[in-house]
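quick one before i forget lol
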Amino acid sequence: MSGYTKNIGPQSDIVISSRVRIARNLEGYPFTHNLNGDLAEDIAKKIDESILTANTKLSDDFKLISMKDLDQINRLNYVEKHLISLELANNVEIGNVIINTDETISIMINEEDHIRIQCMLPGLQLDEAWDIADKIDDLIEEKVNYAFDEEIGYITSCPTNLGTGVRASVMLHLPALSMIGYIKDILRAAGQIGLAVRGIYGEGSEFLGNLYQISNQVTLGVTEEEIIENLNSVTMQIIDKERMTRQNLLSIKKDELEDKVFRSYGILKNARIISANEAMKLISDVKLGVNLDLIKGLPIEKLNCMMEMIQPGFLQKYYDYALDTRNRDIKRAELIRKSLE
């Protein structure tokens, strides 16, 4: 399990995780889509050496993994853990990643950009995630020269990342706002103030389990600190709204809410076949029940881990063989029952 999944942090009743990602490219090299094998290997070697030879502590904590050394199931599992992107997983020839032991830090190499430094922490810890990512960025820059322009900042493959190259995001669990339909207003308001709201796996993905990923869209003309401060402020407003809505539902429609929560809990404990989409929805209901103290004795971090465990890559890695859709649904139900015993 990833460190940000098996642990909980500040505002953990709503905020699953905080992530900061920094995009960088090396001076004198073409963008990744124009790289040949030798140049790509040279970039990976430079980044590897800048991290793993920086000091002995880091070399013990980080490891370099090549996409070509991983099978499809393991690559998918890393995507599900948000440690690599789907683009990197598919870039088998030149893609690499450096990951720390507790899987809270990953450095993607030769993805859309040469380097994507990423730190993910449990709960609302954007400042802490930024501090860690920034330190790693400085460490790499001691050994390599970044592509940088005085007017437009760091040069990135996609123009939307120019400037700071920093994307900050939070993963929020918003079941109450989803129930009353207010989530549409949140999405609309976020877009108006320069924030993007996406599904659990980023752009184009579904809003599974009432999970919403909110991130900055603007990286040019703002400082890194302004990006973090703005997202922190908006996140706290959404947290307050979600908590207030939960309490209103509990006071006005307690019977209906309890029925929804305990029906979902019962299905999870007894189902023999279950899809990932249905499981995510039911786990969301149970998480709400735990947060409202309707269900007692069930750790919230166990439910967070369950959202990771039920994904196709994890299931196939756990059972150590490829599973078709039907057998995944059977094994998923089996693993959920086992986890809730």
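fyi The longest strand covers residues 15-24.
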